[in-house]
Design brief:
Helix content: 25-40%
CATH class of the largest domain: Mainly Beta
Strand content: 15-25%
Structural class: alpha+beta
Number of strands: 21
Bound molecules: ligand BES, zinc ion
Shape: globular
CATH superfamily of the largest domain: tricorn interacting facor f3 domain
Strand order of the largest sheet: 5-4-8-2-1-11-13
Length: about 650
């Protein structure tokens, strides 16, 4: 399978490639046939969770955890407040993965008692269902447990893997279904709960959560957090390390390792303006502070919208603020996603498509139409290229339930960019004023709830179509939401700045221009990306060397450029770039940036051998999510041999 190297390809593996055949009873491992209770795909409307929210839901979670860097575990207890829905229910089903559970107690309002429980055999995608038997509908259950070093939702870094080299570091990544690897809970976006936490660490380590972080909190190894707004489990987050705070505004700031904090605060100085813009469009920011935690380069994503504390890759800090749309994106989730949430992962476009739309509106407001258009052209081109590798059934916004599929692998640019494009289409047809008011109402009326696509369809019908007849047809809406591909009538973004880039590239390829007489002095990241993406499949050694001499692509510190340049060098057999590639793939763990190069290398026996060597060395520094993706790509390369 060819992996696309395009800009916003967050997850490089299309759904189809990762889809396991739905196991028949006979095909399943023997232990899965024991009881129907171990089957994940029944009862709950979220087929990616073992929880049974129709029986009982978590209202509040109290965590009491110690961070043990030597053992690479979190250990302590999780106390869940229960809200019973079914009067006949006498059990609580929770999601877990690789948790060691020591004991479970229940509280009936006066006393605590030990409870019987069973941990089902592990499913490779969904982990283990934890079934707790209760004698009556208890108010609380308390689970004493520890995570394991291999927890899929945590990464543990030794001091050597940090900037400062003195203090260890750990961080979580819970979306989509990794919260269950560090907290036993109902791991579905359909259930929301408030939380509080008491976290202990070594004294010199600072701990932060997706909660009320205090910029002035004394660093003493003993931290308490409260998250008074109800959130779904995938927004649970924790990080600990040598972290200091640098303010951006009264309500916004950056947490990072000391050497990174001032640089990051400068790069992200427009954050306050972004909040103001989003508030003007969609109403008050409802979460208190908005801080950004800059993680080590092994963070597998660009950003993660953990409430009150966006987690961000350091790879967007390139010095000219050209990649800060990532902050616009994660901030936008404070409305689309965190406030109004997809109730299960099949409707992820309600989170990511809406967020990509809002992100681009913020970018337009702060950095102008040209910038917003360039970003749209790159992402729409990326979507078109990715579509080639996505099964038609997965090219729709409204996916069928993701039965037996890992929702992480299932996330494609369809949700992000086709989703965004659909909302841009609606905006164009109904006019900005009407559409802005409509979207604001969607967020207001559904704040702190989780919904599916049909709820949005009903809302559109009521608030947009019937109030403004004749602007769109049923067939058009159907094509966007339920049709495969990009509707033929979709209007693609166009950028005049890119026209100029295309022209220069054309001259150079035709031998009519030399880098010395090409004016690229005002180009930002997006123009360089366009310049490289528009190159032919391969270039000659001389051409690559000429570009390198003029623009120093090989060895670039800009990951967006590296992401596109290195695959081109690999396809062209330009082995001069190999040492720089090895360095890039070892230094960075952000999947989007490194996977296209691994995929290009895996196409030839020699490239594959080189990639395997690099991976072997880089692996200890990779996040479990990145390790999984690289292993899969290299295995596919090997299978072809
Ligand atoms: N919520 C996502 C990240 C995510 C999605 C993690 C699904 C795990 C499963 C985040 O908001 C995101 O989309 N990040 C993008 C950046 C964005 C600018 C497109 C990324 O990490 O590349
Ligand atoms: Zn997002």
């Amino acid at each position: 399978m060819r992996l696309s190297s395009l800009f916003l390809a967050l997850v490089v593996l299309p759904l189809a490639a990762c889809q396991k055949p739905a196991p028949t009873e006979a095909a399943k491992p023997a232990e899965h046939n024991k009881t129907v209770h171990e089957e994940p795909m029944i009862s709950s409307h979220d087929v990616n969770s073992y929880a049974e929210p129709e029986k009982v839901v978590i209202k509040h979670l109290a965590l009491d955890l110690g961070v043990d860097f030597d053992k690479k575990v979190l250990s302590g207890s999780a106390t869940l407040d229960l809200d019973w829905k079914d009067p006949d229910a006498r059990s609580v089903a929770l999601d877990t993965r690789d948790l060691d559970i020591a004991k479970i107690e229940g509280f009936d309002g006066s006393t605590w008692q030990d409870l019987k429980f069973e941990v089902a055999p592990k499913d490779p995608i969904f982990g283990s269902k934890l079934s707790i038997a209760v004698p009556s509908q208890l108010q609380q259950v308390r689970i004493t447990y520890s995570s394991r070093p291999e927890a899929s939702g945590l990464q543990w870094l030794t001091p050597a893997m940090t900037m400062g080299k003195k203090t260890p570091f750990m961080f979580s990544q819970s979306q989509a279904i990794h919260a269950r690897s560090w907290v036993p809970l109902q791991d579905t976006p359909g259930v929301r709960f408030t939380y509080e936490a008491h976290i202990t660490t070594p004294k010199d380590v600072m701990a932060l959560m997706s909660a009320d972080n205090d910029p002035k909190a004394p660093r003493d190894g003993d931290y308490s957090f409260k998250m008074p707004q109800a959130i779904p489990s995938y927004l649970m987050a924790i990080a600990a390390g040598d972290l200091v705070f640098a303010p951006i505004s009264e309500r916004a700031g950056v947490w990072a390792e000391p050497a990174m904090a001032p640089k990051a605060a400068k790069e992200f100085e427009s954050t306050e303006k972004m909040i103001v813009t989003a508030e003007r469009l969609y109403g008050a920011y409802r979460w208190g502070r908005y801080d950004i935690l800059v993680l080590p380069p092994s963070f597998p994503f660009g950003g993660m919208e953990n409430p009150r504390l966006t987690f961000a890759t350091p790879t967007v800090i390139v010095g000219d603020q050209s990649l800060v749309s990532i902050i616009a994106h994660e901030l936008a989730h404070s409305w689309s996603g965190n406030l109004v949430t997809n109730s299960s992962w099949k409707d992820i476009w309600l989170n990511e498509g809406f967020t990509s739309y809002v992100e681009n509106r913020i970018v337009e407001d702060l950095f102008g139409k040209d910038q917003a258009l360039m970003e749209n052209v790159i992402s729409q081109d990326g979507l078109k290229a990715d579509m080639k590798d996505i099964a038609p059934a997965d090219q729709v916004l409204t996916l069928p339930p993701l039965v037996n599929r890992d929702p992480d692998e299932g996330l494609t640019q369809v949700a992000y960019i086709k989703g965004q494009w659909f909302l841009m289409f609606l905006e164009e047809r109904y006019g900005r004023e009407t559409f802005d008011a409509f979207l604001r109402k969607w967020f207001d009326e559904h704040a702190f709830t989780s919904l599916d696509s049909s709820a949005f369809e009903r809302f559109m019908e009521k608030e947009l179509f019937s109030k403004n007849p004749g602007k769109t047809t049923h067939d058009e809406i159907h094509a966007w939401m339920h049709g495969s591909g990009i509707p033929a009538f979709a209007v693609a973004a166009k950028s005049t700045r890119f026209d100029a880039v295309d022209e220069l590239r054309g001259h150079w390829l035709a031998g009519h221009a030399k880098p010395a007489n090409m004016d690229t002095s005002k180009w930002t990241t997006q123009e360089w990306v366009r310049f490289i993406e528009g190159m032919p499949e391969t270039l000659s050694q001389e051409q690559l060397a000429e570009l390198d001499a003029a623009y120093k692509f090989t060895g670039t510190q800009n990951g967006e450029i590296a992401q596109r340049w290195y695959p081109l060098t690999v396809r062209s057999g330009y082995t001069t770039a190999r040492p720089a590639i090895a360095d890039f793939l070892s230094r960075i763990g952000r999947r989007k940036l490194i996977m296209p190069t691994y995929a290009a290398l895996a196409q030839t026996p020699d490239g594959l051998a080189f990639a395997q060597g690099v991976f072997e060395k880089a692996r200890p520094g990779y996040h479990p999510i990145t390790t999984g993706s690289v292993e899969q790509t290299l295995a596919e390369g090997k299978a072809k041999r």
